[in-house]
Design goal:
heterodimer, A: 513 residues, alpha+beta, 10 helices, 29% helix, globular, B: 419 residues, mainly beta, Helix Hairpins, Immunoglobulin-like, 5 domains, 5-stranded mixed sheet
Chain lengths: 513, 419
């Protein structure tokens, strides 16, 4: 029985286990990261997952899925038009569960025992549906989620505790991954062993992949000018160039120029170009600027000033680019800390937390009062839709979790109305429907009264993992509501969840590698 | 400074700080108290209670550092007193839910759990709802903090007739038919029925629902039965019409092959089963070039000698079944004569390993190519891949040869990995 930390990334996935002071990174056949890719191979009910699957991006692009994390919590469908598969329609969470399965199998081989539970990290501003989808993916993969942990908090936990003069250390985390960007401010209270997130903001669709795209476009245009061949039109050619461009990007982190070379991109035609760092920086300057804008906006929203930041942590593979490091150092007016490894910090922190949680939820009651831990914040405001369609906020963004907030004064719009549907939304917009609806339930024991008379109270609780528990009651009924009237809310949720998970598990293809 | 106390009347006492404490002292005391009541540190049954205490601590911090209210409205601190538990009804049917009220000295309890055997439910607003499956006398135990109270309820199965509900009355061979078994009295699903077909097959309808797949056309008689020791046996019979099936064929073949290269074609039915005995016709410019028939595994092998675009068509005639044919395009390219090396990851000082792919001039991966570097030799796998190690930093010459007399050379050196 062991518990691991999993950084389930858009581009790369990393897992680690911590026993005492010795962290161990799961090894994928010589690599410390696994590409977040799943390839469905024709003719059998099996898939190839991870680094091995990347080859299939080129030969079977329609059946190879990457970057599914960007679609978590949406109803995106991935078609596998091959009838040798039991399941021919996949969702972001079923694809993610295949990644997790391969990860767990590999962890068992490298760590010696099969992990049964995990702390899984998510971007700090992941929406509620995306978090639930992540939990479902883990359930399909057969691993128990101890907790979902925001990536910046995990990175902070990896950074660790030390003796300092100031009791409260303010840490800024700049996390630029393959597909997402998050900026967070975390207060580390050393003597209480507590990491308290003060606030977080980010862009769900901004990451290292966008830098690749820019370089790919540049290379493709240069090559088209020379040969009249646009490699972006053919998926196979595009994937080959993308791979070469990614390598060039990595080289440019250390060298001032890099060669992009793809042999025989077309019969008798080789793609050979040199890109210098200056050009690359010009191509991506607005992307870097966008991340700094997010940082600036975050500090405008918080009580903390940029000057109050004691330590800056760079996390995520894309933060290794020199132009990113320069921009971050300039914004914070200090050099970022070199103490964490940008690729592994999130998984390491998650592993540390997994060790703690797996130990504490044990049967020993004495262990459960030790204290400490990581406190997150609500990524976006939460509230309900009222009759005129506007959004009534109940929980503000950047509130420390768990948070429980109530708001009353809601009422009925018709005489004798006994039922009301309460729709919970998450987002910034003033119109409820411009936000994301994450829950809907019916309050069905409103007392019989004229319109506007009953006082309906709505309570929203967002727990420490970011899971929502809504409640509502008619306050004017008060103690008079007998239990014969039933519970006050009916959650519109499938009762046979366990059965559904079992069915999905059975229908998923086997992992062949 | 003393221990935090979420039951205290003032914010200062709640955080355990003196009334003249500085902001920094309040911040640190609040951090300690939040750390202490962090729900992450409690087992599932105690998380709700921990959250309630956490909320009180947050309110105290807000009251002292911002403009919050203390004690907070609508958050009931944990109270002392006698715990009592009452079920709404003491007789119920299996799978029926019952609401239990839990009070402490007539005040609704707002944390803890109610247990019945393996089932547990959290107490919210003085209530918990449980669904009981097992019949017989059941003890409900309420646990709030360290207090425990119990009550009992009796679960008995209702008697009376059952009905068979069909999703459709006409279904094709092989298609699933949804069947539900319900109590005629109130329409609830029956949890312990069995559905039997006239051909002797039977399915246990454990949750009142089953899926039946008819195997041959005609009429299928289905009977639901329920046999219980404590009640009369009941049953219901309905008939469905089964029509012949429709089968769609799916054809898989490579998109591109080399002239003269042998390649496999496989044909499957839409169910995923291999389709044997299927006629495969290969046409070019409207004229039939060759024909073949798939074997038991639905496979056949072909080789086409002339470059160009071909169409493949799989078709079959079967009694009582409509077969939808499948077609596919195939391009035959001229044979390859050149080789090239594509480097997948550049070797670095820390990781001198280099993965590479060998391709021909069509960009296709070449297997069985021999890769030689510093007099060590390896062979590409079925996806054209090979891994070599650059031992002394290079640059070194890498030679690739293939049995078909093709050959290429390139130079590799260790790069900087940027760390």
């Amino acid at each position: 029985m062991s518990a691991i930390g999993i950084d389930l990334g858009t581009t790369n996935t990393v897992a680690a286990e911590r026993v005492g002071d010795l962290p161990k990174i799961v090894d994928f056949n010589g690599d410390r990261t696994m590409r977040s890719a799943v390839a469905f191979t024709e003719g059998d009910d099996e898939v190839i997952v991870g680094n091995e699957a990347v080859d299939y991006l080129e030969t079977d692009p329609q059946l190879t899925f990457t970057s599914v994390k960007r679609a978590m919590g949406t109803d995106e469908v991935y078609d596998v038009p091959d009838d040798s598969y039991t399941r021919t329609e996949h969702s972001p969470e079923t694809i993610s569960s295949l990644l997790l399965r391969h990860l767990i199998d590999t962890a068992e081989q490298t760590l010696g025992s099969r992990p049964e539970s995990a702390v899984v990290t998510v971007p700090a501003d992941f929406s509620e549906p995306a978090r639930r989808a992540t939990e479902r993916a883990a359930e399909y993969a057969g691993i128990d989620v101890l907790r979902l942990l925001p990536e910046p908090s995990a990175a902070c936990a990896a950074y660790g505790l030390r003796e300092r003069d100031e009791p409260i250390e303010t840490v800024a985390v700049y996390d630029l991954g393959g597909g997402t960007f998050d900026a967070s401010v975390v207060d580390v209270i050393h003597e209480a062993d507590l990491y308290e997130v003060q606030g977080t903001d980010g862009r769900q669709q901004l990451g290292g992949d966008d830098f690749d795209d820019r370089l790919l476009d540049h290379v493709a245009e240069e090559f088209a000018a020379e040969t009249d061949v646009d490699v972006r039109e053919n998926q196979e050619e595009r994937e080959r160039v993308r791979r070469a461009v990614k390598q060039a990007k990595h080289k440019l982190s250390a060298a001032s120029e890099a060669e992009v070379r793809v042999p025989f991109i077309r019969p008798e035609t080789n793609l050979e170009l040199t890109v210098d760092r200056e050009t690359f920086e010009e191509l991506t300057a607005d992307l870097v600027e966008e991340t700094i804008t997010v940082c600036r906006e975050l500090f405008e929203e918080l009580d903390t000033a940029v000057d109050d930041v004691d330590t800056v942590l760079l996390v995520g593979g894309a933060s290794k680019m020199p132009q990113v490091q320069t921009a971050v150092a300039e914004f914070f007016d200090q050099e970022p800390s070199k103490e964490v490894n940008p690729d592994e910090a999130v998984a390491m922190g998650a592993a540390k937390q997994a060790e703690v949680l797996a130990g504490r939820t044990g049967l020993d009651p004495e262990a459960s009062t030790e204290g400490g831990g990581i406190l997150d914040v609500a990524p976006d405001p939460l509230g309900i839709r009222v009759h005129d369609g506007s959004f009534s906020r109940i929980i503000d963004n950047n509130e420390t979790l768990p948070v429980r907030a109530t708001r009353d004064g809601y009422s009925t719009v018709e005489d004798g109305q006994r039922r009301a549907t309460i729709e919970v939304y998450q987002g910034d917009a003033d119109r409820a429907t411009d936000n994301e609806m994450i829950e809907s339930f019916v309050l069905d024991n409103i007392r019989n009264a004229p319109a506007g008379v009953p006082n309906i109270v709505v309570e929203l609780e967002l727990d420490e993992s970011g899971v929502l528990r809504p409640r509502a009651w008619d306050d004017s009924v008060g103690e008079e509501v007998g239990i014969e009237d039933g519970v006050e809310i009916t959650r519109a949720e499938a009762e046979d969840a366990a059965e559904q998970i079992e069915r999905v598990r059975e229908e998923l293809p086997a992992v062949a590698n | 400074m003393s221990e935090p106390d979420p039951t205290a009347d003032t914010a200062h006492e709640c955080l355990g700080v003196p009334s003249d404490a500085s902001r920094q002292t309040v911040k640190l005391a609040a951090a300690r108290a939040k750390s202490r009541f962090n729900p992450d540190n409690y087992p599932p049954a105690e998380k709700h209670a921990a959250r309630t205490r956490f909320h009180v601590v947050r309110a105290a911090e807000d009251a002292l550092l911002a403009d919050g209210e203390f004690p907070p409205e609508r958050i009931t601190p944990p109270a002392a007193g006698t715990l009592s538990v009452t079920a709404a009804r003491d007789r119920l049917a299996p799978d029926e839910s019952v609401t239990v009220s839990v009070t402490i000295d007539d005040t609704p309890a707002d944390d803890g759990v109610v247990r019945a055997g393996e089932t547990t439910a959290e107490i919210r607003n003085g209530r918990a709802t449980l669904t009981l499956v097992e019949t017989g006398e059941q003890t409900l135990t309420a646990v709030v903090g360290d207090r425990v109270a119990t009550t009992t309820v009796t679960v008995t199965s209702p008697t009376g007739g059952i009905g068979l509900e069909l999703g459709r009355t006409t279904v094709r061979v092989g298609e699933p038919l949804r069947v539900a078994v319900r109590h005629q009295s109130d329409g609830r699903l029956v949890s312990d029925a069995t559905v039997t077909a006239a051909d002797g097959r039977s399915w246990p309808a454990t949750d009142g629902r089953v899926r039946v797949r008819p195997t041959e056309p005609g009429h299928l008689q289905l009977t639901a039965t329920r046999d219980r020791a404590e009640s009369v046996s009941t049953s219901d019979t309905r008939t469905v019409t089964v029509t012949p099936a429709s089968v769609e064929l799916a054809l898989s073949a490579p998109e591109t092959v080399a002239a003269g290269e042998q390649f496999g074609v496989s044909v499957r039915e839409s169910t995923g089963d291999p389709a044997g005995g299927v006629q495969l016709t290969v046409r070019r410019d409207g004229a039939t070039v060759t024909e073949s028939v798939t074997d038991d595994r639905g496979q056949t092998r072909l080789a086409l000698d002339h470059p160009g675009t071909y169409s493949l068509r799989a078709s079959e005639t079967r009694p009582q079944t409509e077969v939808v044919p499948a077609t596919r395009e195939l391009t035959v390219r001229a044979e390859a004569t050149a080789l090239a090396v594509e480097v997948v990851d550049t070797p670095t000082a820390t990781n001198p390993r280099c993965r590479l792919v060998v391709r021909d001039e069509w960009g296709r991966r070449v297997s069985d190519a021999t890769v030689t570097v510093a007099s060590r030799t390896t062979t590409t796998d079925d996806r054209g891949r090979a891994t070599v190690t650059i031992v002394d930093g290079g640059p070194q010459t890498l030679t690739v040869t293939h049995p078909t007399d093709r050959r290429t050379q390139t130079t590799l050196a260790v790069g900087d990995d940027g760390h």
